Amino acid sequence: MAESNYSEDSIRSLDWKEHIRLRPGMYIGKLGDGSAYDDGVYVLLKEIIDNSIDEFVMGAGKTIEITMSDHKVSVRDYGRGIPLGKVIDCVSKINTGGKYDSKAFQKSVGLNGVGTKAVNALSTNFIVQSYRDGKTKVAEFERGELIRDEKEKDTTQRNGTSIQFYPDDSIFRHYRFIPEFVENMIWNYVFLNSGLTINFNGQKYHSERGLYDLLTRNTDTETSRYPIIHLKGEDIEIAMTHGQQYGEEYYSFVNGQHTTQGGTHQAAFREAVVKTIREFYKKEYDAADIRASIVAAIAIKVQEPVFESQTKTKLGSQNIGPDGPSVRGFVNDFLKKALDDHLHKNPATADALLKRIMQSERERKDIAGIKKLANERAKKASLHNKKLRDCKIHFGDSNDRHQETTLFITEGDSASGSITKSRDVMTQAVFSLKGKPLNCYGLTKKVVYENEEFNLLQHALNIEDGLEGLHYNNIVIATDADVDGMHIRLLLMTFFLQFFPDLVKAGHVSILQTPLFRVRNKKETIYCYSDEERQRAIMKLGNKPEITRFKGLGEISPEEFGLFIGKDIRLDPVIVSKELTIKSMLEYYMGKNTPDRQQHIIGNLRIEVDIVEEEPMLAEVE
Predict the structure, then answer these.
(1) Domain boundaries in the chain?
(2) In this predicted model, what pLDDT tens digit does every residue of 56-98 receive, in sequence order?
(3) Superfamily for the 16-206 domain
(4) What would the DSSP string read from start to end of 485-524?
(5) CA-CA distance, 143 to 124, in Å (whole number)?
(6) In this structure, are residues 562 and 556 in contact, taking their beta carbons and an 8 Å threshold?
(7) CATH code linked to domain 369-514+552-591
(8) Class of domain 211-366
(9) In DSSP terms, which residues pair with 618 in a beta bridge?
């Protein structure tokens, strides 16, 4: 056995920026390219905005200005401004910040002094400027290295801090900011901080009624069974209603942080709602019937919160503070009194809620028989499920890579085969469709159990009883970019939007982009996802390179497919427009053929120029 060369010389200390750049996932979660709402580029932005929010909470600065392009962000607040002598330290020295004095920032999210430093280290360019009492100070960094340190100057600008940064493209490959994700983040900030105004790319965001406004924006109020219940107490705020949709939908927050994976406060709310409603109606209704179709938002404030990850998406705290009550008891006690009082004072709401519970009970009993048979079939199928090639890690597992977990839904044996051979078996699973799935628009949830393919897909995702046990963070529809492939995409999106809308709204569903062309010469190969990229590749390689047009996923070799579903994967997120209700959107696109839809199709027809005519070197895929 070779002698180990382990000595004092083997021990190496990394400075702060080297460590962040070497292990970025430890600080900001998954890297990503901006195609998912929880990708690292949005965490970088959030870390900067959080500092400005903390200033607002402290009573300094009611306005925050954010400007953004595809690759660059600027944030300017009107808080107190970083003390000028500490501007460089605050953005480049770990464990340096103003939040360690717990009296000043009792219920702040960012207590570790890392956030802004991570943004600095992971940006190709980072500029910080502080304005304070008629003086200003500027410092500029590249990948965490200080490159400009200006002396203090006089200024007429109002107090506050300005930060501008470009995320590093070598870490966030092919990234771009998607405005809808940033807009959702900004709305959450203003809902949680009444009186705050955020100007984003020239548009103003403001809320007076907090979580009531959040539910108004995020739900179809026309289908709500009763007016939104809005309850506020010290360190807790709740808004809730019941709609017509399937599933449960929650928006939960701790100290202004959107806990997208829930945690102890969300679990406490789900439990307390059931307990309070049973006691109010003096009947032991099934918990699933009480919570069916609920849409709710809960925000609490906790001293020194404990999260289950650095990106703070799931609350782990059991108590409200070091000497405070349990989160479970705190939420339960508040809801027991506040919700009970509201239902007593609003008998029409209490009556409507009872009718919704009884409707859910009837629907559940109506499909109980077929559900039992379908689940027995699915249980047998899961032992030798030919449709699913599962992965070893699941979303929610105590594994660093659980957020990477992906289920590719694909059509046909050849495409499924290519993905199966080239996937990462630890985090990537494949579900194979046989032909086109059923158009389930307008059908009841009974079809999820009657249709074997839908039932097996539901079981593969593990979402029959809600998103708590979801097996994969990313559900990726991987179909050919032809007419049939587009139709299958629409049918799958209809299935998810009809029966599991919370899955789509939570940002779990995407479309896989695959390259349209391969442009290569003897030295280099470039894969192109658009005609514009193809033109750039031709210019780069010059001298008439070979150009291949990919016609379908099944024609791409497994070796090449591995390049498109690895670190350079490109995804288009399925985003539900807030201006359209899911019901009206599905009715328009998937309901009976209407003159409106015919006119839409005619008005949006495109004629593709055959590229063979202009590129004689075009080759068929091997």
Answers:
(1) 16-206, 211-366, 369-514+552-591
(2) 988 888 999 999 998 999 999 999 999 999 999 989 877 555 5
(3) Histidine kinase-like ATPase, C-terminal domain (3.30.565.10)
(4) HHHHHHHHHHHHHHH-HHHHHTT-EEEEE--SEEEE-SS-
(5) 5
(6) no
(7) 3.40.50.670
(8) alpha beta
(9) 547
